[in-house]
Amino acid sequence: MLFQRKFKRFLKILGPGLLYAGAAVGVSHLVQSTRAGASYGFDLVWILILANILKYPFFEFAPRYAIATRNSLITGYKKIGKWAIIAFAILTLVTMFIIQAAVTVVTAGILNNVFGLNISVLNLCSIILFASMLILIIGRYAILDKLMKFIIVILAVSTIIAVFSALNIPVKQPVELLEGFDFTNKIDILFLIAFVGWMPSPIDVSVWHSLWSIEKKKEIGFSPSLKESLLDFKIGYIGTAFLALGFLTLGALVMYGTGEVLSPKGNVFAEQLINLYTGSIGEWSYLIIAIAALATMFSTTLTCLDANPRVLKTTTELIFPKLKNTFRNNNWIFWIWILFLVAGTLILIGYLSSSMRFFVDLATTLSFVTAPILAFMNYKVVTDKHMPTEAKPKLWLKIYAWIGIIFLSMFTIIFIIWKFFIP
User: How confident is the model at residue 1, as a pLDDT?
Assistant: First the structure.
């Protein structure tokens, strides 16, 4: 009976970690991890593992801070100095349109392919974004929470089955004849930067996680313990790392060495992605895989559309506290930011490019460059004097975090020098 009660309690608490997984298992996994395997075989497995290890502390700090202080990381940024919250607001404004455009264009490509639609990318992205707004109007956090538990399980099971099935596929040509990753090749290095930028996800998502943790507490009516909250996070984080390995493995086993290149066009890419699964499992699985892939990318689009305005609403209220008391219901700030995000995203898609790869590489590169700043800010928040002593990270985790900050900073500096100062 005691075990049963604890299990039921944990199922209630489970949620923010899976929402994190839903935000992470999108472009970084379906697109970038698959591209890594298809283009370079298993050469980048160590990069995938290293990225997940180095970024771990900065995501873990989100539920740690939210449970300990009952505030989001955004409040923590303000407490360590106005410079931090303003810097975060600027970083969010710089990246949010590109991120939303990237995930929406990929979703549109999968939707076009699965249903055989002949709708322009811009029009289909408009439909997706307005449908997402409608869902958020109806259900907000509760719908996100319930959807994600179902979607992540379906995708995880499908990926595991597909990977084990792909192990039986014969190698297309001798491994020694295949070209691997070349650290002197500019195209390969640019892909590496884009790959690391969203592996397992942008560090911005840590802020989203802290907000979801607070929303979860409101929904269930009690505050989980720090231990319970961190367990929920670890399930999501470790799960996304294994799924990333699964997508890379599928790309390596099914596509590497065939001469087939993943298309930058969303609908063609979607067909290739689904074929990775059906080619391994069998044609009978097409419908299940198509639904899982579409649901995954739509949930990522929905999650981003909810998270960025939610973040900016809180940021706006903290920077301009008088706005919070302007009206009885201050949700109007959230909806203004949503409309602003949707409008900016559609303008970007309409005027810059309809290429899925263009948006994905730009968004992931921006996340790579801003990662050291957000990593340091998250560390500063959880070690600040206002953080409850019992919840502060232990010495080993602080050292771990500093190793991550140093490595991320070095990678970013090397990239900037290589990109702008070396001909």
Answer: 58
Helix (H, G, I), strand (E, B) or coil at 84: helix
Residues 67, 210: Cα–Cα separation, whole Å: 8
Question: What would the DSSP string read from start to end of 125-176?
Answer: HHHHHHHHHHHHHHTTHHHHHHHHHHHHHHHHHHHHHHHHHHTTSPPSS-GG
Domain ranges of the chain: 17-420
Strand blocks (E) in 75-195: none
CA dihedral defined by 307, 311, 314, 320, rounded to 10 degrees?
-140
Regarding the domain with residue range 17-420, which homologous superfamily does it belong to in the CATH classification?
Answer: Amino acid/polyamine transporter I (1.20.1740.10)
User: Whole-model pTM?
Assistant: 0.86
Task: Give per-residue pLDDT as tens, 330-352.
Answer: 678 888 999 999 999 999 888 77
For residue 279, give the nearest of 153, 168, 114, 173 by alpha carbon.
168
Q: What is the DSSP letter of 266?
A: H
Residue type, 81: G
Task: Classify 262 as helix, strand or coil.
Answer: coil
Kindly list the distances between the CA atom of residue 337 and the CA atoms of 80, 133, 143, 167, 348, in Å, as whole numbers in the listed order: 25, 12, 20, 46, 16
Read off the amino acid at residue 213. S
For residue range 390-406, list pLDDT tens digits in order. Answer: 999 999 999 999 999 99
Cis peptide before 372, with omega less than 30 degrees from 0? no
Cα–Cα distance measured from residue 281 to residue 283, given in angstroms and rounded to the nearest whole number: 7
Cα–Cα dist 240/368, whole Å: 18
Residues 125 and 341 sit within 8 Å (Cβ to Cβ) = no
DSSP character at residue 70: S
One-letter amino acid of 24: A
Measured between its terminal Cα atoms, the distance across the chain in Å is 68
